[in-house]
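Structure first, sequence second, as always.
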């Protein structure tokens, strides 16, 4: 029987996690043995041997007290800073990581790739490349857990959760939902297939694709009539979205935030949460519950693509440079007379400032 205390090591993070795990196990085991040994040793050595025995008065030892205070503190400090470094690395995806979008729902995992491929309970990744997972839940709390990667990330409804890994060994590795999520929780499992980079590229180039996530997001954007306010060559009723993603946005309360996935998602579902400077609030209805998590991811992929360089025949947001990017945001409302196209969801828009020249640079 092949007994393993730890699962197979198949990611770069697992390789860094294992030494910390064994260090902590060693400290715990050493301290446990030492404490029990001293308890029994002192119980026997200093036991009372007769009713008349009186032990000598001991005032203590300052060096000994310093030793047993400083040494454990030092050991705990090593654990803390070692763990803090791994924690920071765990929550800081590399900038060149491959994007993969995962949606959890009772009781399956739906996977989307930027190139357009979709899978259920399957994830294909290349060996040696960092992979960033943007995850969302459509119902309850789930937990994405790949033991061989030492990767575990809760997926909480209402916002995106991000994790990343770099697989170091080809093969197939089990993943689980590690949070009880209902009657079929035990069946909410899947497989990560780690492939040779060339085989992965060939797999991506395979058939059955209905378009990239960005193109699907653009279709949804057009279908919802959002392009009637996001104009190509000039400022419309809403801010420009081109080159918005990843850039700072100045809000009406003086704060500056970064237009990342979470910010854009919040702007779609709760447009009054963060209003850009010089744009009005209370002009856009909420679309909470009217657009799926997959649709949100597609819309975000489309907006992200607008920051990757100009695209021909674009129907939204005129390209701007420099200072004009600051106040641009996604927020506001569809104009009352805009084409309906199905009001099941929409990309949020804000009303245009009365005087564009007054916008902060």
């Amino acid at each position: 029987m092949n007994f393993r205390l730890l699962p197979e090591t198949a990611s770069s993070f697992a390789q860094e996690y294992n030494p910390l795990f064994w260090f902590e196990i060693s400290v715990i085991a050493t301290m446990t043995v030492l404490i029990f040994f001293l308890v029994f040793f002192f119980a026997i050595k200093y036991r009372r041997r007769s009713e008349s025995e009186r032990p000598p008065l001991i005032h203590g030892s300052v060096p000994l007290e310093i030793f047993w205070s400083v040494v454990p503190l030092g050991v705990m400090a090593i654990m803390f800073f070692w763990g803090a470094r791994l924690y920071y690395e765990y929550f800081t995806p590399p900038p060149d990581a491959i994007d993969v979008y995962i949606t959890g729902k009772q009781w399956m995992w739906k996977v989307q790739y930027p190139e357009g491929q979709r899978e259920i309970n399957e994830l294909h990744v290349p060996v040696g490349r960092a992979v960033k997972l943007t995850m969302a839940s459509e119902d309850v709390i789930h937990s994405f857990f790949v033991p061989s990667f030492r990767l575990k990330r809760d997926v909480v409804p209402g916002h995106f959760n991000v994790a990343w890994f770099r697989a170091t060994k080809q093969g197939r590795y089990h993943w689980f939902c590690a949070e009880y999520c209902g009657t079929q929780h035990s069946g909410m499992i899947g497989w990560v297939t780690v492939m040779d980079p060339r085989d992965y590229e060939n797999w991506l180039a395979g058939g059955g694709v209905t378009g990239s996530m960005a193109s699907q997001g653009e279709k949804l954007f057009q279908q919802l009539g959002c392009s009637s306010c996001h104009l190509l060559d000039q400022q419309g009723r809403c801010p420009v979205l081109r080159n918005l993603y990843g850039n700072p946005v100045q809000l009406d309360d003086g704060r500056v935030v970064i237009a990342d996935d979470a910010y854009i998602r919040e702007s779609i579902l709760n447009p009054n949460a963060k209003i850009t400077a010089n744009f009005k609030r209370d002009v856009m209805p909420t679309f909470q519950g009217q657009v799926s998590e997959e649709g949100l991811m597609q819309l975000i992929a489309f907006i992200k693509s607008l920051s990757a360089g100009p695209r021909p025949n674009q129907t939204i947001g005129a390209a701007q440079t420099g200072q004009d990017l600051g106040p641009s945001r996604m927020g506001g409302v569809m104009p009352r007379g805009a084409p309906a196209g199905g009001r099941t969801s929409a990309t949020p828009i804000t009303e245009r400032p009365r005087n564009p020249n007054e916008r902060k640079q």
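Margin note: The two ends are 68 Å apart (CA to CA).
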